[in-house]
């Protein structure tokens, strides 16, 4: 799922939440670094794990100035490879705002399957928002 943070406090809250989840092996986040400049340009990771059912949800974000250069695609492919080969997962899910056309195109390009819309799935700024759910299976 793509999250847009609008201020420093939101970023700190997100970092603390992800740190807590990582310590409990419930989630993990990685920095996306541009090798040439050693600059952090985004992050990606597993938002949640369900090892009993051999699945995980992924998320990713890239700084706008780096959109369209293949960084998100490379990051997602790395997550998929690790999930299917090392973690031995069967299913990877991604939840996307229906208005996030670029993210939807990326998931389609990577052969994720659109499964439907999760109606009023989350509350953002006091308003319930829909999310589309996509998946990729190890057998795909």
Characterise this structure.
The chain has 140 residues and is of the alpha+beta class. The radius of gyration is 15 Å and the shape is globular. The model is unreliable at 1-5 (pLDDT under 50). 29% of the residues lie in helices and 40% in strands. The chain starts with 7 loop residues before the first helix and ends with a strand. The chain contains 3 helices and 6 strands; from the N terminus they run H-E-E-E-H-E-H-E-E. A hairpin with a 4-residue loop joins strand 1 (28-34) and strand 2 (39-50).
> C-alpha Rg, in Å?
15 Å
Number of helix segments? Answer: 3
Beta-strand proportion: 35-45%
What can be said about the biggest beta sheet? 6 strands, mixed
Average pLDDT reading: 85
- Envelope shape: globular
SSE pattern, N- to C-terminal: HEEEHEHEE
What is the helix fraction of residues, given as a range?
25-40%
Low-confidence stretches are 1-5
Oligomer: single chain
How many angstroms separate the termini?
Answer: 21 Å
Strand order within the widest beta sheet? 1-2-3-4-6-5
What's the count of strands?
Answer: 6
């Amino acid at each position: 799922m793509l999250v847009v943070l609008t201020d420093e406090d939101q970023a700190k809250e997100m970092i603390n939440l992800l740190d807590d989840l990582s310590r409990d092996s419930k989630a993990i986040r990685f920095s996306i670094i541009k090798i040439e400049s050693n600059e952090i340009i985004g992050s990606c990771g597993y938002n949640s794990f369900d090892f009993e059912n051999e699945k995980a949800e992924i998320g990713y974000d890239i700084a706008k100035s780096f959109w369209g250069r293949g960084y998100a695609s490379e990051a997602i492919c790395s997550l998929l490879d690790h999930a299917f080969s090392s973690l031995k997962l069967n299913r990877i899910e991604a939840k996307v705002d229906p208005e996030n056309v670029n993210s939807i195109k990326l998931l389609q390009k990577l052969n994720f399957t659109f499964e439907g819309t999760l109606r009023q799935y989350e509350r953002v700024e006091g308003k319930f928002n829909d999310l589309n759910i996509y998946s990729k299976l190890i057998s795909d």
